[in-house]
C-alpha cells in the first residue's frame, strides 16, 4: 500500500482548505499520522517523530515536518510508503531517492542518484543561485499519471522515469532519465520556473514548463556529454510540435478570461506549453546569445524569488540586459519580438526567392482544406540565421510581411546556394524556390556533409510538410531523397521513412503498384546504412550502446528493410529468431527485438508461430516482451494461423481480457489480416461486445477505414454498424467512414504521382 499526492494544478483544495491559486503563497506546517511500519515524506525534513495511541489502543506514528518556505499550494506534497532509499549529499543538500525495496537493493535507482547532484550543481552554477532547501527527495512510484512532478523538496516520478537496470548500458534509457530528472530539477533548483518564482496565473504556465524544458536539455547533456543536444532537441521537441502547432487554434500565452471561460486547465499541460515553450526559449537564447540570456534570467530570479511574475516581467529584465551592452542589436523591443511568438497562434513559413533576394512570411496553414473565412494574416518578427555556400552569415531579421535582402541574391553558378534557419535556430519552416532547391539537391548528391546534419533533417522535414499542406508538389520533396545512399545518419533516415512509409499505411502501400517501385528505389539507397548496422547486430551489438539514435531509430530502418523484402534482413531475422528457439536463455538484442520476432514468425512456419505462443505463455516473460510477442504473432503470413490466433484471443482462460482487443487491432492492420479480422469481429460480435463494447469497434473501424475506397465498401461496414450501434453513434461512424474515404481517394492520387515519379527515377 502506498499514498502519494499530486496537487497541480487545482487539487490542493481537495486535500486541505486553502485559496488554491498560484499567486497566493504561504508557509506550511505539515503533520502526518500514519501506520508505524510506514515512513512519511513531505516537502521539508521531518523534525519530530513520536507515537500516539488511538481509542482502541493501537499505536500510530506522528511525523511532524519543518515549516516550509513561502510557496504555492500546488507544490505541497506528501508520500506515505514502505520504500527504501539511497542517499548522497551534494553541497550540503541531502539527496535521497526512494523506491520499492527490491528496486533499491538491485541498484535500479543508482543511475538517477549519480546524476541528480551534478545536474543540481550545474543549474545552480549557470544561474548563480543556491537551492534554498536542506533536502531533496525523489520518489519512484509504480504508477503515476505524469512523467514527473516538481513538488518542492519532494519530487515524484513514475518508475520508468527514474529506474535503469544496472546491466542496461544503453544510452537511450539513461537519456530519458537524465531528461526527466533535469526537467524537474530545473523547476527545483533555482529558477523562477515554478518554485522560487511562480507564474501569476496558469495562463503563463509556459514560462514554467517551457523554461524547464529548455534547461532539461542543457542539464541532460551536461551529465551525458555523448548525447548530441541539437539533434535530440530538434527530433524530440521542435519537429513534433511544428507538426502539431499548425493544427491547433491556441497561442502559447492565452488571456486569463479566455481560459476561465472556455476550457479546462488540464488542457494547458500539452505539447504547445512544453515543446513550443522550449523551442521559443531556444530561439530566444539563440538570438540573444546564451550569455545574455542567462544573465537576464539571473537578475530576474533575484528580483522575483518567493513571489510571482508574468511573461512581461521577464521581457523587462531581458530588455535591461540588452540595453546595457552593444554587441547584440535587436530590431525591436524584446516584448514586441516575443509577443509575436507567444500571443499569436501558429508559426510562419518563410518563402525565399533567390533571383530577387526577397523573403516573405505567412502563417503556415493547410492550403488543401482552407476555409475562406479563416484569416491568416499574422506576422512575426523572425530571426534568420543563414549560410551561403557553406559559410555562416551574420544573423538578420524579417520584421514585416516581406523584405528584400540584396546579400541573398545569387549568381548564375550552380554552386551558389543559400540555407536559411541554420540548425533550426528559429521556430518556423522555410520554402525555397525551385532554383535553390535544385542547387541544394545537387549539393546533397555531391557533398551531403556540406549541409549541417540538423539542417539536412530540417530541409527534408520542411519539404514534406510543405507538400502535405499544398505549398509544393510531392515531386519536389522526392528530388531531395535521391542523395540518400550517401546519408549515414539514422536520425535523418528516420524522418524520410516516417514521411514515405508512415507506420499506419504499411498495409495499404503493400497492396499498391507503388510498392515494387519504392522497393527498388529505397533499397538501393538503404543498403549502405543497413549493412553498416547489420554488421554490428551480427558481430557486436554492444558497440552501439552509446549511439543514441541507433537505439531509438534502428528498429524503423530494419523493419522497413524487411518490409521491402530485403533478403538479408529477412535472413537476419530468421537467424536470430532461430537462435532464440534453440536456446530460450538467449536474448534477441532489445533494439530490434520487435522486428526480429515479427519477421521470424512471418518467414517461418507454424513451428515458429507456436514457439512465440509458448514463450508468450511463459509466466516469467517481461511485460515489454509480452507486447512484442502479441504483435509478432500477428505477422504470420498464413491465413489459418491468423484466424487461429484470433480464436485463441477469444477463449479468455488464456488471456487477460484487454489482450483480445490488442490482438484484433494488430491483425486488422496487416495486409492479409484486415479481412480476416473484420470477418472475425462481425461473426463474434455478440461475445465481443460484452467484453469491449464500442471502443473496440471504433479501433477496428479506424483500421478498416484505411482500406475503404468505394461507396460499396462503406455500405458493407455501414450495414454492420447499423445493426449494432445506437442511432446517435451511427452518425459519428458514417462521418468517420466518409472522411476515411476522402482521405483514401486523396492518398491514391498522391500515390499515383509518387509512382510515376519513381518510374522515371528508379534507375538513377
UniProtKB/TrEMBL annotation:
Record flagged with keyword Membrane: yes
Alphabetic keyword roster: Aminopeptidase, Glycoprotein, Hydrolase, Membrane, Metal-binding, Metalloprotease, Protease, Signal-anchor, Transmembrane, Transmembrane helix, Zinc
Cofactor dependency: Zn(2+)
Residues at the active site: 184
Membrane topology: Single-pass type II membrane protein
Binding residues annotated for Zn(2+), in chain numbering: 183, 187, 209
Site, as annotated: Transition state stabilizer: 274
Enzyme Commission numbers on file: 3.4.11.-
Domain (ERAP1-like C-terminal) ranges: 417-737
Subcellular location: Membrane
Superkingdom, taxonomy of origin: Eukaryota
Annotated cofactor note: Binds 1 zinc ion per subunit.
GO cellular component: cytoplasm; extracellular space; membrane
UniProt xrefs under InterPro entries: Aminopeptidase_N-like_N, Aminopeptidase_N-like_N_sf, ERAP1-like_C_dom, M1_APN-typ, Peptidase_M1, Peptidase_M1_aminopeptidases, Peptidase_M1_dom, Peptidase_M4/M1_CTD_sf
Domain Aminopeptidase N-like N-terminal: 2-75
Molecular function GO terms recorded: metalloaminopeptidase activity; peptide binding; zinc ion binding
GO biological process: peptide catabolic process; proteolysis
Domain Peptidase M1 membrane alanine aminopeptidase: 111-341
UniProt-listed PANTHER family: AMINOPEPTIDASE Q, PROTEASE M1 ZINC METALLOPROTEASE
Family to which the UniProt record says this protein belongs: Belongs to the peptidase M1 family.
Protein name: Aminopeptidase
Organism phylogeny: Eukaryota, Metazoa, Chordata, Craniata, Vertebrata
Gene name, Swiss-Prot/TrEMBL: Lvrn
